[in-house]
Design goal:
Layout: H1 2-11, H2 33-41, H3 50-54, H4 72-77, H5 98-102, E1 129-135, E2 140-147, E3 158-162, H6 171-178, E4 181-183, E5 190-192, E6 202-206, E7 216-217, E8 224-225, H7 226-243, E9 252-257, H8 260-272, E10 279-285, H9 291-304, H10 310-320, E11 321-322, E12 325-326, H11 334-349, E13 369-372, E14 375-378, H12 389-400, H13 404-407, E15 408-410, H14 418-424, H15 427-432, H16 447-451, E16 453-454, H17 461-469, E17 474-480, H18 488-497, E18 501-513, E19 516-526, E20 529-534, H19 543-555, H20 576-579, E21 583-585, E22 590-592, H21 598-611, E23 615-616
Parallel strand pairs: 3-6, 3-9, 8-16, 9-10, 10-17, 14-15, 17-20
Antiparallel strand pairs: 1-2, 2-6, 2-7, 4-5, 11-12, 13-14, 18-19, 18-23, 19-20, 21-22
Helix pairs in contact: 1-2, 7-8, 8-17, 9-18, 10-11
Length: 656
Amino acid sequence: MVWAGWFASCQSGEAGADWSELGCGRCPAGLTGMAGWAWAAERSPSGRYAASTARHAPAASPARAAPTSCGAAARCAATTGSTAPLSARRQMGPVLLSSLLLLGLGWAAPPDHEVTYLPGLSKQPSFRHFSGYLCAGPGKYLHYWFVEAQSDPQNSPLVLWLNGGPGCSSMEGFLKEHGPFLIQPDGVTLKYNEYAWNKIANILYVESPAGVGFSYSDDKKYATNDTEVAHNNYLALKDFLRLFPEYSKNDLFLTGESYGGVYIPTLAEWVMQDPSLNLKGIAVGNGLSSYEINDNSLVYFAYYHGLLGTELWKDLQAYCCSEGKCNFHDNSNLNCTLKMGEMIQIVEESGLNIYNLYAPCDGGVPGSMRYEGDYLITHDLGNSFIRMPLRFSWRQNLFRMPVARKKVRMDPPCTNSTAPSMYLNSPEVRKALHISPEAPEWQVCSFEVNRGYKRLYMQMNEVYLKLLGATKYRILVYNGDVDMACNFLGDEWFVDSLCQKVQVARRPWLYTENGENQIGGFVKEFTNIAFLTVKVGLRALGARDGAVGGCAGYQGCSQGWVMSAAPHPHCQPPSLSYRELATWCPQTGLLLPSPCSAASLRTSLTKSCRGSARRSSCSHHPTRPHHRHLAQPGLAAARLHHGPAMPAAFSPGWTG
């Protein structure tokens, strides 16, 4: 119990006792005995024990008031600033509930972070949830909202979720995608989400980086980059586990969407070097994995979805392609650049919903920007790097506008953030969530963060190969098949480019709706990585899409990997042809050989792995279809607003 030891050293008279190696700092000279105890206690995660110990301290050394940000400021104040990946000095915060240890009360979640009453709910939840701040480096405080699993949280996995942008809030994922409460159009009412991820896992939503949502820094400077954000997210995760040590041994999964395609793998690089973290896998939904591949594939996606006319398609082939290869990404041919401008105008600026091609554009045709009161609203997140000088010139002029710092707001295109903004900015909700008075007004995306963000990774191949090289992590790349921001074709090309051995050829997965089996999407399995599609886009979803996503999520819970879960009502046994291979197992929601047991699950997996085709995806040789015992692997929906599924990283169905 080194934390208790640090307290003891201050209390016993070891003035200047140095515990900085653990990120604890040094006991100030003159603060010994009970005064030293008081000094140490107020540097605990919440500082809430300072008052109780102050009566023991000399009058000249009164305990200070509890710091802001629910103790994150105190934890951050003790950091040394080291950036070595495994250095203990990177461990933020001096102690985790050290006073409780001294009092013999054991470990526990921080009670002052618990949300005891949440406005907008007709009935408060039966599960616990917490909101507060995590230390992400000296003077940086990331807001988090943590929801415990609705059943057996002690043994359920811990899942970290990050929305993308860069610069967009994970509260969007919480309130409009897969959180336990969905915001209603009135901006006041919350409705329970039938397909919430926390039905089967503990979910940690973090607003990252500083400057996004309710997250902030002392210096209010929010220019950052991929490397710094990955490090900050790692420190925040470590700080969370200091606050909630009871989850330190749970299986850990890192998940995100969109620019999370960069956030999540780069965070995993840090986490995989830390043996104290029980990382099991990552899942990225409609992720940005390669600018070049995403831009090149978008042209094919647009043409074969009927968005580009024949003449434009012929011109693009003539000016952008040679020797059987097309470069739509950074072609220096002026004619190619001009034709790509026409393509972008159709796909991104004509009013099509870039997150769901077949859904309406919320708010109507937006254009590149619009005015709303005193604010200039821009919808360009800056993630397309297609060579278009005029477009980049427009962006630079926007960034240089004198009004930019305070009067520009960034909203993702074809989305309506009015309801979550109204809800999260209400004084009652800010109080319930323990939001710091230093935190800015909540916005779905931060223009300042996005504008000042330096993208360092143009493609993620090296990071993915590093994770795959460890041979112990499960990776899922999943896409809604009508999302154009980060389209499924590009992510499939990206996964293929990793050249992993194919375990199971591409095949459909099923769900049940109104008593009938339906195809939910397609999945292709490699060694330790899978690519999955879902027949739906990111946003503007209805109940039917929720059924698809919910089914995929519940199918993803298996006793053999993470946890057991009862099958969802929409997730019934698939067709008879699959029934002949296996028996429906209600304990896990999967098809297994009889009897339904963890042992039979392991046996079926072993047999199916041995029997599968093990050719490289880069060999260009067809692989024979292989009917596995697990007819419906655990699969995830794309970035869904009303019922996305738990990522298939929780499934045995696609591992090598």
